[in-house]
Amino acid sequence: MRKVLRQGRSVALALPLYSLLLGLGLISLGWNLAAMLLQPLLPPHVGRPLGRRVIAGAYRAFWTIASLSGMMRIDARCLDALRDEPGLIFAANHPSMLDALLLVARLPRSACIMKAGLMKNVFLGAGARLAHYIRNDSAHTMVRLAVQDLRRGGQLVIFPEGTRTVEPPLNSFRPGVTLIAKLAPAPIQTVFIDTDSPYLGKGWPLWRVPPLPLVFTLRLGERFAPSPDSAALLLQLEQYFRHSLEQSASDAPPACQTLRAPISS
Length: 265
Known about the structure:
- The protein contains 7 helices and 8 strands.
- By secondary structure, the chain is of the alpha/beta class.
- It has one domain (2-264).
- Strands 1, 2, 3, 4, 5, 6, 7 and 8 form an 8-stranded mixed beta sheet that branches.
- Mean pLDDT is 89; it is low at 3-8 and 255-265.
């Protein structure tokens, strides 16, 4: 009987959560069908900002509904003060598949670096192409397009681990972010994503019901100026993330602040 009750409770909790995710999937599908028609018709200077604003608005609506439903608790207000600052790189840790949605929802002028395979995904591909998101299949092309976008006044969302965290608190960083910062040139604003849930982390299947509500808190870290020695800066950036995440694992994370973090040279 207890097992039956536990299963019934899991189903009752799962229905609202997966209804939310289904709604997000349907919205994404609808927009991607529209984007497929719009992309050949709109010049880049029109399609790029339109695509980014629509994606940000859809994700922000999703997070709002998820919060009002009680399924999730999200605090990402720290990004609001930076949403209109041109030529800025946001580098974040990557505990969950939902991380990009959290950042993009608050940063409507930002581009993401995406896995090349997702550019063909029916739920993401056309919208990502209209928004001029950046593929990661060619390192040279990825860096070139990211630099061009930043020089035009865009923003860049990047996860230096390259994939979701496998070895907490942090995977080793992959080269790219500090080289882009050097060539743009553009400062790197660090962002920490704190969550108490393993949901949609590496190895967590989509169908497995997590403890609810899911809690995500974003907080700003230091801002790093671009450096001529991009390899040394990458090491410094990784050490900073690792130390900060290890410290926050033992201390309660501070509330999300909207003040700009200091620049680190």
